[in-house]
Amino acid sequence: MSTRRTAVITGAASPKGIGLATAHRFVNEGWDVVVLDLDADGVAGVAKELADHGMARSFGHVVDVADEVSVLAARDAVAAEVAAERLAPVGAVVNVAGITSPVDFLDTTLELWNRVMAVNATGTYLVTKAFLPAMIEQGWGRVVNMSSVSAQRGGGVFGKVPYSSAKAAVLGFTKALARELGPTGITVNAVTPGAVDTDIRVGSTDEQEAEIARAIPVGRTATTDEVAASIVFLASEDAGYLTGVTLDINGGSHLH
Q1: Taking a C-beta distance cutoff of 8 angstroms, is the pair 4, 32 a contact?
Q2: Known catalytic residue at 125
């Protein structure tokens, strides 16, 4: 990367998460990294871990992606770090934060529906909107959004109706924003992982995990690093002609 930039990553503090693997990938590619997460201890720990990694500069901030005041406070804190030259200008926003909902439709509540939509879809909207103006001003930027194969298949992995609906909203958001931002130098893309070895499927049994793996043509779930590699590629200079793309990372579980 010829110009040093900062990647802002939500949901980056989970020990087995895609966000953390993505943060490490960005550091290895020479980016500065902002860690945003609801877990205060996790944010502090990951930011220090990344800062100890060679020449990387990192910054952590606690945020509730579903709360506009919280997101704007994080944006302002990052802007202050950039102004003080402790971070490079923001060049990528990666919306990883998400929650799932393994509940049958008739057992869902409005509270569950609203929370799943708020974190997965509204959070993507709020964080992108907060950091987008600075990227537009500099004429270069990347937005990479976390959707899911569940949005394409209508569930069928672990999350059910609220989760699939929220992740489908992310795909529509990605395509519409990509079209709108085309002339600005900003690309907007989404990744749609299938089953990944993370903690998002809380409560799943070993038998359920084995069944999920058997249903995938390559015979296993993805690693977080495999997903992270695709995210970092979409944020690269080389991906400048890709926008509005949905990148499937599902081991062949959904072919279309």
Answers
A1: yes
A2: no
Q: How far apart are the first and last CA of the chain?
A: 33
CB 170 within 8 A of CB 190: yes
pLDDT, the chain, mean: 92
CA distance 193 to 224: 10
HSE of 74 in the Cβ direction (CA atoms, 13 Å)?
A: 32
Which residue ranges form the domains of the chain, and what is each CATH number?
6-249 (3.40.50.720)
Kindly give the residue spans of alpha helices, DSSP state H, lying in 118-253: 123-138, 149-153, 161-181, 206-214, 224-234
The label of the residue with tokens 């996790």 reads 42
| Separation of alpha carbons 183 and 107, rounded Å | 45
Helix/strand/coil for 243: coil
Tokens of 35: 């860690």
3-state DSSP call for residue 199? coil
pLDDT in tens, 14-31: 988 999 999 999 999 999
Neighbours of 116 (CB within 10 A): 25
- Which of 31, 163, 164, 178 does the annotation list as catalytic? 163
At 68, list the tokens: 């506009």
One-letter amino acid at 69 equals V
Interval 120-157: pLDDT, tens: 999 999 999 999 999 999 999 999 999 999 999 887 66
Q: Between residues 170 and 222, which one has the greater pLDDT? A: 170
